[in-house]
Amino acid sequence: MPLAPSLIERYAAHLPITARTPRITLGEGGTPLLRARWLERETAIDEVWLKVEGQNPTGSFKDRGMVVAVAKAVEEGARAVLCASTGNTAASAAAYAARAGLACTVVLPAGQVALGKLAQAIVFGAKVVAVRGSFDAALAVVRDLAASGEATLVNSVNPHRIEGQKTAAFEVCEALGDAPDALFIPVGNAGNITAYWKGFVEAAAAGLSRSRPKLYGFQAEGAAPIVRGAPVEEPRTVATAIRIGNPASWRSAVRARDESGGAIEAVGDDEILAAYRDLARREGVFCEPASAASVAGLRKRAAAGGARGPRRVVCVLTGNGLKDPDSARAAAGGLVEVEATAEAVLAATR
Ligand code: F0G
Fold first, then answer.
1. Whose CA is closest to 107, among 81, 78, 77, 73?
2. DSSP string, 1-59
3. Using CA atoms, how far apart are residues 50 and 45, in angstroms rounded to an integer?
4. CA-253 nearest atom, ligand 1
5. Residue 163 and residue 153: Cα distance in Å, rounded?
6. What is the pLDDT of residues 229-266, one digit of tens each?
7. Which of 60, 109, 132, 138 is 20 to 30 A from 38, comparing alpha carbons?
8. What is the number of the ligand 1 atom nearest to the C-alpha of 188?
């Protein structure tokens, strides 16, 4: 059987790809869509599916958009790429820049990036700079630098990122044979909800689906500018990936919400962490806290009766739990250490 082609090759007809675009790949896309039986029982929804984006090469959905953004940067003659990040964009940009032979600079909010993501950016050879301030401040800095011609900006304000990320919607339609009734997704800088909506609209137009889903986006309560209708000066949440107070794609996220007939709502850190733990213990899927916001949102709506109606839903799990060992440790509590004897181990497990 031939190996699956790269995301760029597989979806070239739907992407801004030319004969001169380099076909770079790290094996992105083609992620699992898993049935979630425990969530089906809890929510009384017929079909709940998990799109496990943590299975991408650097462990998040960012790779879908980054492969396209970096390939286009190479095609356009760039020498370097640049981004601000809560961690995953940085890891992805650093990896694809290494693959394509470009320099990479990432600007991070100091002290607010999960350890695994920081390690990835460093190991892939990016120049890593932490700034005193939030992600929003870091994004303002890289926008300035990009405007002065320092490097190509590969945040999701780069339209090639949205193009690549929309392929996840195609994959969902291909796997289910149609669009789901509803899709639940975390919202940070709001690029991904924008990309999924573009993907579902195009999938329907291309005959990959008969319908389009309602999109339900979830921000963390302490970082919920779209829900509140105003930027949040000092966003706070355990879900550091979505600790964002002024999303760049705010308007297109609102459009995705309204055109699809969905909603953008807030979930508390306690709800996020409960979904994070339960996904691991009951479904065997280890995602990062921000990713669990989609499932926290589904549970919250179902408990309030708001999920009545959809019979088939998809929750997007955006990133891999291994990226954030500190959150895992905090969820797990202390480790028991005993003498190396069978009796002691048995006693400790009772
Ligand atoms: N989930 C994870 C794991 C993320 O890393 C992000 C965003 C989101 C959800 C939200 O997606 O921004 O498109 O609405 N992370 C960005 C970063 C901000 O820098 O890695 P979004």
1. 81
2. -PPPPPHHHHTGGGTT--TTS----SS-----EEE-HHHHHHHT-SEEEEEEGGGSTTS
3. 13
4. 14
5. 15
6. 999 999 999 999 999 999 999 999 999 999 999 999 99
7. 60
8. 14
98 Cα to the center of ligand 1, angstroms: 21
Which residue from 70, 11, 57, 69 is spatially nearest to 31, judged by alpha carbons? 57
| Res 2: pLDDT | 54
For residue 143, how many other CB atoms are within 10 A of its CB? 15
pLDDT band for position 333 (cuts 50, 70, 90)? confident
Q: Are the C-beta atoms of residues 243 and 113 closer than 8 Å to each other? A: no
Residue 1, pLDDT > 50, answer no
Distance in Å, CA 169 to ligand 1 centroid: 17
The candidate with the shortest Cα–Cα distance to 114, out of 289, 278, 274, is: 289
Residue 155 has pLDDT above 90, yes or no: yes
Angle made by CA atoms 68, 200, 41, in degrees to the nearest 5: 115
Q: Which atom of ligand 1 is nearest to the CA of 91?
A: 20
Contact (CB, 8 A) for 89 and 66: yes
Q: What is the pLDDT of residues 4-54, one digit of tens each?
A: 679 999 999 999 999 999 999 999 999 999 999 999 999 999 999 999 999
The DSSP letter of residue 320 is: B
Mean pLDDT taken over the chain: 96
> Is pLDDT at 307 greater than 80 in this prediction?
no
Nearest by Cα to 105 from 145, 74, 132: 145
Q: Report how far ligand 1's centroid is from the alpha carbon of 337 (Å).
A: 37
Q: Ligand 1 in contact with 92 (CB < 6 A)?
A: no
Separation CA 49–CA 31 (nearest Å): 12
Pairing of strands 33-35, 47-52: antiparallel
